[in-house]
User: Fold these one by one.
Assistant:
Number 1:
Amino acid sequence: MEDPLPFRVAVRPLLLRLKHVHPHVYWHGQRVAAVMRVAATRFDVSRKERCRWVFGALLHDIGKLVLPASLLMKSRPLGDHEWARLKRHVHYGLYLVEQALSVEDARPLAPFLFLHHERPDGEGYPLGLTRGQIPREVHLLSIADAYVAMREPRPYRPARSHEEVMKEVHRRRGTQFEEHALDEMLPVLEHFRLKPFSPPSPEPTPARSAKPEYGRARAV
């Protein structure tokens, strides 16, 4: 991925389709990519690696393109069948990017697409990996992904403040988030303290009376 232009051209139709079908997922990916871009700059990684982190963030939820809005925007906790269906988005995402590029060209992005819901405590999916089996950059992405998701409004809850999110992030230290990766990301997340995370286009307004849910189906 030394020259990202051909890669960008190849995946652009996927991102445009996602923007049209699920704009909230598209803008979520843009925000996560912004966090990963700041992280890559702060950690002084190579240009090649920076491109990989940013594109991995942009595309990490591309598999949700296959899923209906009725599932993604549900305002109540998901049932077992719905939850199992949602978890398939990591498989769909890897397949879509391999089709847009090739299996070989998609390989640098595969960890971001397939492993971003793995957890250091082994309770993630799809493989149930533990901390040492998960690449560092995926640990970083999972933190960025969760932070942005909690800052955004959702149909089942309002957006949370930076302070509220940071309390929750620290609560999940060592279980959902790997400790060293979290220590690295704390200054990066602080960079976004005052950044608004309101959707740039109309989306369902969450009920202000909804209580935050930290259950399995609504972890972020």
Number 2:
Amino acid sequence: MTNEKQKIGQKITDAVRKGKWAKALEGYEQLIKLSPRELTLSIRKAECLEKLGRTDDALNELRRVSQEYMKRGFTVQAISIAKRVLTLDPGDTVANQTIVELQQEKVARAPMRGITPTPDKLPESTARRVITTEPSSSARSDAAPPQQGSSASPNVDIELDVEGLLEGGVDIDRPPERTPFFDDLRPDEMATVLKLCAPRRVSAGQWICRENDVGDSICVIAHGQVEISCTGSEGPVTIGQLGPGEFFGEFGFFIDRKRHASVRALIETELLELSRDDIQKLIDEHARVGDVLQLFFIERVVDMLLARSRFFGLFTPTERGLIKSKLVREKVKDGDFMIREGERGDTMYLIQSGHVVVTTKKGDFQVELARLNPGEFFGEIGALTGQLRTASCRAKGDVEILALGKADLHPLLQRNRSAADVLRRIADEHGKGKADTLFEIDRWGMV
């Protein structure tokens, strides 16, 4: 941010602290002249107008911003502002109707994309940005998580982080990222969403939810940026960052009404929140929404499995993203074999769902050695060396597995020596740490 903007931002900060809303309004108007395309500044201008009792002016500014977002394809942001309008004027019919009409025009111009089948090979995520550095220590990471079902009003006191405003804003001159929740909705579906979603604002550093909290709502980010983390085998693991148009919370909806990861706002963030009951109403009326959520849920499951894995969790978020792009999903029916003892193999497998029984042949009988659960992996020695399998693995019930071949595994291990060392130790624990295997690992320069 330029020095001039910083000076104006400081003036706004001082004015807000002293409750001088006219001065704050003047500051935001100056920033808007310097950054006319940054609509988050116009939103703050509207908040100042509201503080000054100029509600009609505030409403007009918010309606203008909502229409501008919608015209440029930023559906989530348009809905977020429309909900603000309704907070100020519950009887308003203009903002929502405008969004529905613009959505109808958009659908007419570009037919909706159908829901595609789950791909065998997982695509690389183009929307998620992975973390390359630790979050700022100044973030208020000790803030208490919200109570389930609570939703902060969008009309809270204006935050003072002007730089964060610009950082977490939306570049309206750039083509918007697709948001599966909203971008392909028909006008009638859009009208349903507008009624159901609730706006929520969280401060920089505030925990939106913590792992294992009760919770089943889904949140879509309108403005801002959040960090996703979970507990791995060696402690907390950062999964990645999400920004405008992306969403989280689908685990609690699909599985068990609890949070499977912690989410913290890196900068001030505005969300649209849909409760489980509201989402179910939406899916009951519009089944396509459920199909979209299911696809994203599957991808997030893979993210979580990799992050929590004793082996894959040792890789950085960027490396895990590369690993995910190499994985091939396979579905195995109850009783079918994935690995047979004595056969040659060059692939390792990560269990996504279901259970796998490991057996070895003793005379005419198959002796059970272990039962593996979701998140565990097997076949690593074959992937390392290509040698004959020393045990058989079959599905106990229907199973979904993620396969990673030798050609994709070796370059990853050469880049991450600690991960290679852990894989060797796991092989020892599995009773497969034979001298020729360890020699093969050493030969590849992995330890």
